[in-house]
Amino acid sequence: MSFGSTTIQGNLRPKLTKEELAFVKQELAEQLERYQKIVQEQEALTPQREKWVKEFLHRIQTRGYHVHAGIKRVIPKEEVRPRDGRPLQVIF
Amino acid sequence: MARPHIEPFVDRDVGFKKLNLPGFKKGVHYKMLSMDKETGACTMTVQYDAGFKQPPGFSYSEVEIFLQEGHLMIGDKRCEKGTYIFAPAGTSLPAMSTDEGCLALVFYNFGPPSFQESDADHDKADKSQKRTMVDSYFGMDWQVPTLFPQTAPGCLLKILHLDPKTFAMTFLYCMTPGFWQDNISYHDVAEEAYHIWGTSWMMQFGDLPTGGYFYRPAYINHGCFRSDLGILAIGRTDGDLHNYFHHDPFSTPEENHHRAAAKLARMKPALYQWILTNEHNHLPHDFEYPNDTYDTSGYDSGIHMHDDGSSHSHKSNGPHSHLNQKKKAKK
Fold first, then answer.
1. Topology adopted by domain B140-282
2. pTM of the prediction?
3. N or C, where is chain B less crowded by C-beta within 10 Å?
4. For B208-233, what is each residue's pLDDT tens digit?
5. What are the chain B neighbours of A3 within 8 Å (beta carbons)?
6. Is B125 in contact with B89 (CB distance < 8 Å)?
């Protein structure tokens, strides 16, 4: 699925012009560079993120976890799924 | 996955580029936020220079415009910041101009940016929808979301556009100062958002400041959330937004996908079992939209994760049943 309405399907000019094709090609190449930079930046954030996760897991077992709107529930330790060596990947 | 996972990207960190596509007049500069690799559909920050003038015309794509700063004359109507415009593909907009310049977010939903000078609609223009223009800042009230489960108190919405068939929506949202939500969320739909003002924080991605943008495919964990001073943002989804909350920071998109299916089976067992009968042979049919087809043979779930952390796209071709398969025991 993609953004936009589904009452009609696609661009009214499905065959792109030469200029549009060149524009799309250039922008997609730059988008790939942006994506790779984001992946690097997010990997560099891993040590800090590990701390945030630790703090989050502590808070939900003490202050509570937002179940719905303002309703919170303190999560018992046995309900916290063990990490078991799983990676903390955030960009896909 | 038509657009890659872009999160976060701050457009204030990059310069504007001149838009040189045929049809566009001088004085249009842009920053690309994300682009669909199959269609060229895109989301851009656009700067219209002081003195910009454009005659009446249409785009070959459906277009959404949100005015962030400055004002824009559309015909004889002066549009202030906060104005949102929805233009179905091929419908002609009146002449546009700005004396002092303005800044907008522009969404081309079906293809790359296009403009054809014309004071009439394209002969195949989308007549099923109306062009709309709303003053979102002063003409609409903030609403408490009616989703279940719902975001924490202090997150409010203004719905700018809602697709009647898919419930895909474009919306303004805000977080009040001191907003805090201690859970992890994911959705069945892709989501994109742009911070008009303010900074929020997410446990996975850190701070998203003014000018911050993300495009996030379905089933990707985000949250917990916090905003010290509050934010104002515009967001979009490509389908009905349901909040799946949980507290496992290490779950994968594939696991989240499975969990969403389990939730569907629990909450709508009759529908779930009926769809699965005869290995997916019950393709949907809606008597309200009898001409619509739902060919899922090319469905791309976007992400298929393996235990080693690697991922790839997972396309379904034909019967693809996981029913009655024993799960592999995890070591």
1. Jelly Rolls (2.60.120)
2. 0.91
3. C
4. 999 999 999 999 999 999 999 999 99
5. 41, 107, 109, 168, 190, 192, 236, 238
6. yes
